[in-house]
Structure formats: C-alpha cells, structure tokens
UniProtKB/TrEMBL annotation:
Major localization class: membrane
Keywords linked to the UniProt accession: 2Fe-2S, Cell membrane, Disulfide bond, Electron transport, Iron, Iron-sulfur, Membrane, Metal-binding, Oxidoreductase, Respiratory chain, Transmembrane, Transmembrane helix, Transport
Segments for region (Disordered): 1-41
Location(s) in or outside the cell: Cell membrane
Bilayer topology annotation: Multi-pass membrane protein
Family annotation (CDD domains): Rieske
Function description: Iron-sulfur subunit of the cytochrome bc1 complex, an essential component of the respiratory electron transport chain required for ATP synthesis. The bc1 complex catalyzes the oxidation of menaquinol and the reduction of cytochrome c in the respiratory chain. The bc1 complex operates through a Q-cycle mechanism that couples electron transfer to generation of the proton gradient that drives ATP synthesis.
Superkingdom of this protein's organism: Bacteria
InterPro entries named in the record: QcrA_N, Rieske_2Fe-2S, Rieske_2Fe-2S_sf, Rieske_Fe-S_prot
Biased composition (Basic and acidic residues): 27-41
PANTHER family, A to Z: CYTOCHROME B-C1 COMPLEX SUBUNIT RIESKE, MITOCHONDRIAL (PTHR10134)
Organism the protein comes from: Streptomyces beihaiensis
Protein name: Cytochrome bc1 complex Rieske iron-sulfur subunit
Sequence intervals crossing the membrane: 60-82, 102-122, 171-190
C-alpha cells in the first residue's frame, strides 16, 4: 500500500505536510540535533578594518603597562620610605599598617594592569580567526610538528609584536620591573626587632586593668577558681597600637589557694594566691582562654597545649616547648593590683632558645 492509499489524517505530521507539497519527508532527516553546525561566519572587529581604532587599542594597552611600571616603582618607594610601625585608618577596617596597605595596593595594581593589558591586547589586536583542528594521536608526526612551528610563526606575526613597538617596549618594561618587588622583599623582611620581642608594656608600678570593665583590679575582684584577663594601665582600646601592644602584654589572672601552689617562686611572685601569667601560648602564639578550675590547667585551643598554673605554668601536654612567662605582681598603697616588673622572660614562642 502506498502513501497515496493512506488517509491524510493517519499520516505522520511531517509526512502529511510534505505530501501537500508533493514530497514525502522522513522524520529526523533534516533536524538532527547532533549535526555539526560548523563555524559561524567570521566577523571582523573594528580594529581589523580601522587603523585608527587599532592605534587607540595600542595606546590603551601601553597605558596599562605604563601604569604597572609606575605601580612597581611606587611599591619599591613605599618599601624604602614608609616606617614599619606607621599605621593609617582605613574605613571600615580600622587602623592597619601603612606599609602593608601600600605594598599590597601597589603590587596589586602592577599585576592587574599587566593582566588587563595582555587581555585587551589579545581581544582587540591579535588575530581572532577561528581555527578548527581534528584530534590527532598524542605523538605528533613530523608534519604536525612542522605545522606547529609554522603556526607559532604565524601567531607571532599576527600578534603584531614587531609592528606595535610601543606595546612591545612598555610590556617588556612592566615585566622587567615587577620581579624587583620580590627582590626587595627577599632583601629583608623588615627592620630587625632588636629587643622589642623581649620586652612588653608591663613595668613596675602599672596597675592591672580589667579587660571587660576597664577598671583597675583589686584582689577582692578575683574569686578563687576564676579566670580574669587584664591589660596595662593607660592602654586605650582606641589607640592605634592597641593590638600590637596587647599581642605581647595580654595577661590572665587566676586565684589559687596558696597551699595548692607547688612552685615556690610562683608563690613569691603572686599575691594571696593570685597568679598572673602571659595569655600567649609558647607554641605559635595563640591566645589561651580555657581554664579548668579543679586541676588549675589552662588549655590553648589551637593545638591543645596544656599548662599547669599551680606549678609554674609548666607544659604538661601538647607541642608547646616552654612554660608560660609569669608577671610579678603586688598591691599598691591604694589597694590595687600592680605589676612589680615586666615578664620574667619573653612571651610567645620560645625563639630566644634557638641558637
């Protein structure tokens, strides 16, 4: 039976439609969704047909490379000229190191401008002709290798690197200057600390001020088994160097019954069982904040170093290699707790024990 013998309403939609035009179509013959559509027709960019537009793009690329060079020079100048302890206020971050902020800003601009210049160069001036190439075995044939070298030569020619001398020279300048940033950084990691790491803000006569209330502490303010954090008198949280000072001067106070203190010097440096130790862990400098009342142990939350505050804050567990430094404290004529000296040794990681 031919299609002419089948009623039109029983034919497939595609076949019925084509029957009306005198032809029978097979479903899927002309609408294969997996057919290779081929490459679209190439559209020329404005820079390909207008040399003035190409010159504008060239100037933009050169400007970006020039900005990169200036930013690198600014990086070096900032590294040499800005004092390491200088701070500036940056909203909404707050007070930060002026040197770190400037170095990060200038280096970021230098690297960004090199990248932006290269991208703009590729998008506007380099060849954008679409090239399709069939897959081939991993090991290239001699003819393929020769073709690759030929394509490379064509790409070098089409990049117009030899023709666009302004781009070439400024690019080479930017790429040559950026590594100097690393050279200056490797030349020194900042000024030598001298004795700054060996001393803190604590000294004889400074009152111990409660970190929460900002009020001087009396012995009666510290109950047996409690943990209190303190800072040196006269140090404001609004000060530019507050974080820098507290990084070394952070203090924790614990009251232990005098008969439970095992270390004789610790007992002599305490007041009525109130002992004062650095809050900075001697492993990598994390702040200690966990206190176990029954055992008189304090725990560093970073790597679980544990110190016994009833026995000279010696290490009883964990990677810390040194006991916590103790602060010698007493009571002044007004009845407030005060420091009688600085810490007995440098706070934080035991750098001074490394030859």
């Amino acid at each position: 039976m031919s299609s002419q013998d089948i009623p039109e309403e029983n034919l497939p939609a595609e076949q019925a439609t084509d029957e009306a035009h005198g032809a029978v179509a097979v479903k899927g013959e002309h609408d294969n969704p997996f057919a290779d559509p081929g490459l679209p027709e190439h559209e020329h960019r404005i820079q390909d047909i207008d040399e003035r537009a190409a010159k504008r793009s060239e100037r933009v690329v050169a400007m970006l490379f020039t900005i990169s060079m200036l930013a690198t020079i600014g990086f070096i100048a900032a590294y040499l000229a800005i004092p390491v302890d200088k701070s500036i206020y940056v909203f909404p971050i707050g007070h930060i190191s002026a040197m770190n902020f400037t170095l990060g800003l200038t280096l970021g601009v230098a690297l960004f401008c090199i990248g932006a210049g290269a991208v703009h160069w590729a998008r506007t001036l380099m060849s954008d002709v679409e090239v399709a190439q069939d897959r081939h075995p991993i090991e290239a044939e001699p003819e393929t290798k020769a073709q690759v070298l030929s394509d490379f030569a064509d790409g070098a020619r089409e990049s117009q690197l030899g023709r666009r001398k302004l781009i070439r020279n400024t690019m080479f300048g930017a790429l040559a200057l950026v590594p100097l940033s690393g050279v200056f950084l490797l030349g020194g990691l900042g000024p030598a600390p001298g004795t700054k790491l060996r001393h803190t803000a604590w000294k004889k006569g400074l009152k111990l001020v409660n970190m929460n209330t900002n009020l001087p502490l009396r012995p009666s303010d510290i109950a047996v088994g409690s943990l209190t954090f303190a800072k040196p008198e006269g140090l404001s949280e609004d000060a530019e160097d507050f974080q820098t000072v507290m990084a070394k001067a952070a203090l924790m106070l614990v009251r232990i019954a005098p008969e439970n203190i095992k270390d004789k010097r610790e007992l002599a440096w305490s007041h009525e069982g109130i002992v004062a130790y650095s809050k900075i862990c001697t492993h990598v400098g994390c702040p200690i904040s966990l206190y176990e009342q029954q055992t008189h142990h304090v725990l560093c939350p970073c790597h679980q170093s544990t110190f016994d505050l009833s026995d000279g804050a010696r290490v009883i567990f964990g990677p810390a290699g040194h006991a916590l430094p103790q602060l010698h404290i007493g009571v002044n004529s007004e009845g407030y707790l005060e420091a009688l000296s600085d810490f007995d040794e440098p706070v934080g990681p035991a750098f001074w024990e490394r030859g």
